[in-house]
Design goal:
Layout (H helix, E strand, L loop, with lengths): L1 H7 L1 H23 L8 E6 L5 H10 L6 H10 L8 E6 L4 H9 L6 E4 L6 H11 L4 H9 L1 H4 L17 E4 L5 H17 L2 H7 L3 H14 L6 H14 L6 H8 L36 H8 L8 E4 L7 E4 L2 H17 L11
Antiparallel strand pairs: 1-2, 3-4, 5-6
Helix pairs in contact: 6-7, 11-12, 11-14, 12-14
Length: 349
């Protein structure tokens, strides 16, 4: 019966069957289309207002191979009409359907932003523009806008105190405004865990960060950071000038200076801690969490001076009075002389 039926209706059964087979082949082709990437995984960065055509060209420019025709068809099937900005991870061999689904649902891969030490706002702004879609100039405007910074209790001289060095996961296309809000939220979280220590120290947040920035520049030895912090706090309490060499380098704007001496000490700047009593207006760098905690837990002692050890270990000798400091400095100078290194002037560090 069935064979007889087919014989009588061959005129329309064959075309329908051909269409059905063609349809199945197309579906299999489309759903089976794969993406080929040059590495196991790559990232594509999509800027705002990118068109679908521009997106295809951008993806292919990274040597990512996929079928443009299949991409266009599947985009319509899955209603991928709007191109969303962001950073997206593509893996070698992933299906085209999976790629489109990721783009259509804005399934971004956040940037692992590792913030370390920065000395200037320009340096920080450049780092941000190299890692996020934020324009360097936009970042600098925010860091120098006193009206905006007032919301966070800061101004253009203290704006970098908003930044706590750490590793953050942030979406690449975050706006400059939202980035500043995120940093403020992170620093509030940071300080909420240290309120008792802050109160115990008798210092304000800004004072802690400013002292920490000087200590950060003075020594790389974590074991003695709390002692160095104690020296500066002792000087503050006695009304002595800090005489911190790193503040002179900051005032001059040259961090390659090996020896601070002579006319450098007379530079007219609020950051000149040889001429001015008290702390400079703000931090001279973004200090590490280790250094910030060292200041919060500063060592209570009577030391007022320190100079590099003569064993060149990177550590320092500390002294309560200037005469002892002179003796420490001379030992260091003799060690320099023994190595044929030019004798350095004694500084009250």
């Amino acid at each position: 019966m069935f064979i007889d039926y087919l014989k009588k209706n061959l005129g329309w059964v064959i075309p329908v069957a051909a269409v059905l087979v063609t349809f199945i082949i197309c579906v299999v082709f489309l759903l089976g289309s794969r993406v080929s990437t040059p590495q196991e995984k790559v990232y594509i960065y999509i800027s705002p207002n990118t068109s679908k055509t521009e997106l295809v060209s951008k993806i292919k420019s990274q040597d990512i191979v996929f079928n443009s025709f299949a991409f266009d068809i599947l985009s319509k099937v899955f209603r991928y009409n709007k191109v969303y900005s962001g950073r997206y991870e593509l893996k070698d061999g992933m299906s085209l359907v999976m790629m489109i689904n990721k783009l259509a649902h804005r399934e971004q891969s956040p940037v692992r932003l590792v913030i370390n030490k920065f000395r200037t706002k320009q340096e920080f702004a450049e780092f941000i523009s190299n890692n996020l879609s934020i324009n360097k100039d936009s970042m600098l405007i925010k860091l120098n806008d006193n009206e905006i910074l007032k919301e966070y209790g800061l101004d253009s001289t203290t704006s970098l105190s908003l930044i706590i060095p750490n590793t953050y996961e942030i979406y690449w296309d975050i706006s400059c405004e939202d980035f500043v809000k995120r940093m403020n939220k992170e620093q509030e979280k940071f300080w909420s865990k240290r309120l008792s220590k802050l109160k115990e120290s008798g210092l304000t947040k800004l004072q802690v960060l400013t002292i920490a920035s000087i200590v950060e520049e003075e020594t790389n030895m974590n074991k003695e950071k709390s002692r160095v912090a104690g020296v500066y706090i002792n000087r503050l309490n006695k009304g002595m000038p800090l005489q911190a060499d790193p503040t002179i380098k900051f005032a001059i704007g040259d961090f390659t200076i090996k020896r601070v001496a002579g006319d450098m000490l007379d530079i007219d700047s609020p950051y000149n801690t040889y001429r001015n009593i008290g702390l400079p207006p703000g931090p001279i760098c973004v200090a590490s969490i280790t250094t910030i905690d060292a200041v919060l837990n500063y060592e209570r002692h009577n030391f007022l001076y320190f100079c590099a050890r003569e064993d060149f270990s990177g550590y320092h000798n500390f002294a309560v009075d200037f005469d002892s400091h002179i003796n420490n400095a001379r030992r260091y100078q003799r060690a320099l002389n023994a190595l044929g290194i030019e004798k350095a002037e004694i500084q009250e560090n």
